[in-house]
Specification:
With 364 residues, this protein is α+β, with helices and mostly antiparallel strands. It is 26% helix and 30% strand. It binds flavin-adenine dinucleotide. Flavin-adenine dinucleotide (FAD) binds next to helix 1, strand 10, strand 18 and helix 8.
C-alpha cells in the first residue's frame, strides 16, 4: 500500500483526525481539493465553543460536544490559541418562553453540562444591562475561539507527527481492493493520479455524501444556509456575552443570535434556510428587516441602520426539510473506511472528540 491512512478533506474535522492518527510512523495523507485548508464550512461559522445544551441526551452530538469542548479548552490553554470563555445567555423573550428555557436547562443537566443556571430578569440585567429578557438560561462554559488558529494547530501537529497534506487534489473515485482502497484524484491542471491506502477517513464536509457514494453508501445531505449581519462598530462593548433566543423547533438552527468575535465585534446570525445544492455564499441583503426584527426583541439598543450583510455558511444536514433531529453519522461502513456525514454544528466544538472517536474505530 502507498498510504496507511488517507483523510479526505482539510476542514477542522479532517485536520483533527489527521493530527490524532499521526504517530510519526504511519504514512498519513490529507487530500484537499482547495488551494488551502479550512476554506469550507470550518471558516464560515460562529466560532463558538458550545457547551452542549441543546442536543438530545445520548446522541453523538451531545456526547462529542461536551467531550470536545473540554478538549478544546485544554488545547487552547496549552498551546496559547486565541479563545475566550465569554459565557452565554439563552433568553426567554416572553413569559411563554420561560418553559422552553427550563426544558433546555434540564436537557443540559442530562447532557452533563452542570454549570448551567436559570436566571430571573433582574439577574440577567445585573450581568448584561443592555439586553431585554424575562428570564435566561446561563451557560458560563460557552466561549469563542479562532477557528483558523485551531486548524493551523491541528495541521502543524499532524505534520510534526509525519502526516502530509496535498492541496488542489479532488478525490473523484474510491474503489475497494484486497487490503485497502484505490483512490483516484485529479489536480488543478486536470492530471489524474491514483494510489492505494489501507484505511480512509471521509471528512469531506458538504461533499461527504458524494464521497460515501463512491464506496456504495447512499447518504443524502441537504444544504441549509445561514446568513450573518454585522452590527455597527459603534455598538461594540454594549454586550459582553453571547446572547441566544430560544432555538427553532426541530433542531434546524439555533435562532438568530448575537455572537462576538475575539476582537469584540458583534454579529447577528445565522438564520437557517434550506437551499439548492450549490455553494453560493452571497448574503441575502433583503433579510435585514427580518434579522433586525428578531434581534431587536432582545437587543433594545439596536437600530435598523446598525446592521449590514456580512458572511454566510452552509450546514451539511442529514435532516431534510420538515424532518426531526438527525445525529452526526460516524460509521465504519466498509472495513477501514470511516464516513463522517452530517457534521454540522457543533462540529467545530466536537472536532477533537470526533477525531478520538475515529481513532478508536480504526484501532480496535
Ligand atoms: C452557519 C454555521 C455556523 C456554525 N457555527 C458553529 C459554531 O459556532 N460552533 C460549532 O461548534 N460548530 C459550528 N458550525 C459547524 C461547524 O462549522 C462544522 O461542523 C465544521 O466546520 C465541519 O468541519 P468539516 O471539516 O467536517 O467540514 P469542512 O470545513 O467543510 O471541510 C471539508 C473539506 O473537504 C474538502 N473536500 C470536499 N470534497 C472533497 C473531495 N472530493 N476531495 C478533496 N477534498 C474535498 C472541502 O474542500 C473542505 O475543505 C457551524 C456551521 C455553520 C454552517
Amino acid at each position: 500500500m502507498d498510504a496507511d491512512v488517507t483523510v479526505i478533506g482539510a476542514g477542522v474535522v479532517g485536520l483533527a483526525v489527521a493530527a490524532t492518527l499521526a504517530d510519526g510512523k504511519s504514512g498519513i495523507y490529507i487530500l484537499e481539493k482547495n488551494e488551502s485548508h479550512g476554506r469550507g464550512t470550518s471558516s464560515r461559522n460562529s466560532e463558538v465553543i458550545h457547551a452542549g445544551l441543546y442536543y438530545p441526551p445520548g446522541s453523538l452530538k451531545a456526547r462529542l460536544c461536551v467531550e470536545g469542548r473540554e478538549m478544546l479548552y485544554e488545547i487552547c490553554k496549552k498551546h496559547a490559541l486565541p479563545h475566550r470563555k465569554t459565557g452565554k445567555l439563552l433568553i426567554a423573550a416572553s413569559e411563554r418562553e420561560r418553559e422552553k428555557i427550563e426544558q433546555l436547562y434540564r436537557n443540559a443537566l442530562q447532557n452533563g453540562v452542570e454549570s448551567v443556571s436559570l436566571l430571573e430578569e433582574r439577574e440577567v440585567r445585573a450581568l448584561e444591562p443592555n439586553i431585554k429578557a424575562f428570564a435566561a438560561l446561563y451557560s458560563p462554559e460557552t466561549g469563542i475561539l479562532s477557528a483558523h488558529s485551531l486548524m493551523d494547530y491541528f495541521l502543524h501537529t499532524a505534520k510534526e507527527r509525519g502526516a502530509e497534506i496535498v492541496y488542489h487534489t479532488l478525490v473523484i473515485g474510491v474503489e475497494g481492493m484486497a487490503g485497502g482502497y484505490r483512490i483516484t484524484t485529479v489536480n488543478a491542471q486536470g492530471e489524474y493520479f491514483a494510489f492505494t491506502s489501507e484505511r480512509v477517513v471521509n471528512a469531506a464536509g458538504l461533499q461527504s455524501d458524494v464521497v460515501a457514494r463512491m464506496v456504495g453508501k447512499h447518504y443524502l445531505l441537504h444544504y441549509c444556509k445561514g446568513d450573518y449581519f454585522s452590527i455597527d462598530g459603534a455598538k461594540r462593548g454594549m454586550v459582553g456575552r453571547l446572547v441566544y433566543p430560544v432555538p427553532e423547533e426541530n433542531h434546524v438552527g439555533l435562532g438568530v443570535h448575537l455572537t462576538l468575535d475575539l476582537a469584540g465585534r458583534m454579529r447577528l446570525g445565522p438564520d437557517a434556510a434550506y437551499t439548492e445544492r450549490v455553494e453560493d455564499y452571497r448574503v441575502a441583503g433583503e433579510k435585514a428587516d427580518m434579522f433586525y426584527a428578531s434581534a431587536a426583541r432582545f437587543l433594545p439598543f439596536l437600530r435598523r441602520e446598525d446592521i449590514i450583510p456580512d458572511m454566510s455558511g452552509i450546514r451539511p444536514k442529514l435532516q431534510a426539510r420538515g424532518e426531526g433531529f438527525r445525529d452526526f453519522l460516524i460509521s465504519e461502513d466498509m472495513p477501514g473506511f470511516v464516513n463522517l456525514v452530517g457534521i454540522e454544528s457543533p462540529g467545530l466544538t466536537a472536532a477533537p472528540a470526533i477525531a478520538r472517536f475515529v481513532k478508536n474505530i480504526l484501532t480496535c
